[in-house]
Amino acid sequence: MGLFGKSKKEKELEMQNKLLKEMLAQQSAPKAKAPAKEKQVVWQCRYCGVKNTRWQSNGMPDPGICNKNGKMGGPKGPHRWVRIMTK
Ligand SMILES: [Zn+2]
Question: What is the 84 CA–ligand 1 centroid distance (Å)?
């Protein structure tokens, strides 16, 4: 009985060691490379100063309608986007 008890305990220890080694292996294993973080670009309208932040790959914001672009009483022109910042 005594021998059996000992071997059982040894087995448990082996299991614990195995689990511990697996955990350590997982921790030291190189992590999967995260996709490169895309940059954000801040655009600002030259006329009205409104800002628009977009992902770089999305390019320039939609022209939209600018309240400051165009003559008084006339048709409104589009925003004029200028890149002011890249985050
Ligand atoms: Zn504008």
Answer: 14
pLDDT tens readout for residues 4-40: 667 888 899 999 999 989 888 877 666 667 667 889 9
CA of 49 to the centre of ligand 1 (A): 6
- Secondary structure letter of residue 70 according to DSSP: S
This prediction's pTM:
0.56
Nearest CA to 79 out of 53, 60, 54 is that of: 60
Consecutive H or E run containing 3: helix 2-28
Which residues make Cβ contacts (< 8 Å) with residue 65, sequence separation at least 6? Answer: 76, 77, 78, 79
